[in-house]
Amino acid sequence: MTELQKLKQKDPKTIEKLYLENKSAFLSFAAKFKIDPDELLDIYQDAFVALVENAAKGKLDDLKSEIKTYLFSIGKYMVYARFKKDKSANIDIEKLPENFEWETIDQTEDLLEVLEKKLSQIGEQCYKILKMFYYENLKLDDILEVLPYQSKDVLKSQKSRCLKQLKELILKK
């Protein structure tokens, strides 16, 4: 029986083993976010609980990455959600594409740094659209008043192409 199957069955020994194996690595990784260590531990524990619950629900049956990578992805999302809640980050994580593959980003790099670096590589018009929509939280109608597009549908299509281009740049590294 694989470790993932044991996790799915909530095997106590497997849960304890995975918890302890990944704890220090996650806390070291997450320390760069300058969050209180006790809060980081809470985030790790919440991420681990989500991992076990997702495994039990069968959501990891087709997992293509390592369990550690999946766990770190959950933890990263929780860290960013905390930043969003505290308004200390300017990016709305929930507006990233649903199929955004967190595990493709090296765990030693901060997602915000990667996004900023890749945003600087796309065209000026795409940069403006994505910045206004995701960073400034403007609606398409508001952006339409600032940028010269024929219609909301044209702007929506352009935003979609820009987002696709950004995703390709991120995945390309």
TrEMBL record:
**Protein name, per record:** RNA polymerase sigma factor
User: What residues does the RNA polymerase sigma-70 region domain cover?
Assistant: 18-86
Q: InterPro entries recorded for this chain?
A: RNA_pol_sigma-70_dom, RNA_pol_sigma70_r2, RNA_pol_sigma_r2, RNA_pol_sigma_r3/r4-like, WH-like_DNA-bd_sf
- Species source reads Lacihabitans lacunae
SUPFAM superfamilies from the xrefs?
A: Sigma2 domain of RNA polymerase sigma factors, Sigma3 and sigma4 domains of RNA polymerase sigma factors
